[in-house]
Amino acid sequence: MSTLPLDADVASAARAAAAAPRRFGALYVFEHRLRLARRTWTSNVVPALGLPILYLVAMGLGLGSLIGGGAGAADLGGVSYLVFVAPALLVASAFQTASEEFIFPIRLGFKWNPTFFGMNAAPLSPGQIMDGNFVYTAVRITANSVVFFALMVVFGAVPSGFGILAVLACVLTALSFGGPLAAYITSLDKDASQETLVLRFVVMPLTLFSGTYFPLAFMPVYLQWIGWVSPLWHGTQLARDATYGLGEPAWLIAVHLAYLVATFVVGWQLARRLARKKLNK
Amino acid sequence: MPQPVIVAEGLRKSFGEFTAVDGISFEVAPGESFGLLGPNGAGKSTTMRMVGAVSPRTGGTLSILDLDPDRHGPEIRSQLGVVPQTDNLDFELPVLDNVIVYGRYFGLPRALVRRRAGELLEFAQLTEKSKTRIDDLSGGMKRRLTIARALINEPKILLLDEPTTGLDPQARHILWDRLFRLKEEGTTLVLTTHYMDEAEQLCDRLIVVDHGRIMAEGTPASLIRQYSSREVLELRFGSDKNAAVAPQLEGVGDRVEVLPDRVLIYAEDGERALEAVRSRGLESLTSLVRRSSLEDVFLRLTGRSLIE
What is the pTM of this model? Predict the structure, then answer.
């Protein structure tokens, strides 16, 4: 009696068992992240609701009451400060969430609590592990941005009927910044507080100099380049196009979109490659 | 003779200039319990990672369940249970959830995962802890949970990398008991260890590895027979005197090994060897007759102790 058929069975059983993980592996990682989020959902939902209200009241109504009318309004393209700043706050909040989501869970999974190695010991591939984290963050940012957007509508900050497209700008901005950021965090080996440095010296300046609180053109020319390379500026302009019609030409809108998509794709692919290098030494 | 589940031939792995695994060959039969024994840095973990299809080999051939890990990583890993050297449980999830999310990585249906997770916690004696946070588990419990998690896909082969390193004796015995049960149920076990007693307890057959090469292969008993004597007499004359006394011990037993802290005399009958030493007028501070172990095999093969 031959023993070969038995082993052929084992190999074909393996092929059958790997079919689902090969196809849906990223979703299993996403599911893991959801299960984690469910345990801390109050600490996710409270800021998702609370922060937009605080920002809209403080910046839009508070600061806006100083700026409104006269020369100020002309500089803002004829809209109130609330209408001008609200879409920018929306995108900035997505940008902030992305900075945290693409730093800490990634660093955690590779180093501090190396769950990614466990996933990879199971059938999941390094690329799928990355993808699952991207999917989770995209979903989380979509949900947060929809809530934020609804509050903007309540505050009367969305004159245009196409305003909801601003949510898409949020997700694009988050991924555009998240791709390269995830790649950088994946490339880290030793702990040297690089996470804090990124938050202080990249995230913070980008938030201030990306035309969030005032038009980029108000900045000295030698500082405007920060906005041009910043996904936050491109995303903010798109969100303004959506919520009140900034009046940008179509080619410029195309540039914003292309820039966001390109930085995401390059960063994301690099992150997948680095993850493979790290997990499959 | 059933076809082996793992076949490695001339398996090599280099990291730049450094060769971690330098051409090792072995086979593992289904249901067998196979051990890689060696000191830290011998290349055991690297070998395990190649067998686990997460580390591409530099050279040689490797086949697991008749599949090539370079091309069929996910297929192979779908049939393995892996207990890594360092725990990678998710500290933010409770015990039961850790098993469930892990089961989902294999694409197993939720209901099935839930049912098996309950059974496995039972097996790992962790049912009462199912809602406990990982941080609140002892080292032994974490290892048991990692083993339970590794069994969620009913693996054909269970890979265990230093399963009891860092555990206290009681926790080790509980773990051995669980692993022995798996072995009785016919699970193929592949484990690395630098503990002799662990290898003797759990392995049907093992290879002794040092500097990425195989030094010897066989059952624990046959290795001891081949490379050591039945008994060992351990004598301590005081740290500065051991070497000085050694020449006077010549001819006692089969072989004399002088270590910095003690002298080992390999003999069929340890008590008789002790009498022979005393009859030469030599008095040691302490004397101990024990059965020969794999530690002695390793010492004989490499001239070094396993744990330094």
Answer: 0.91
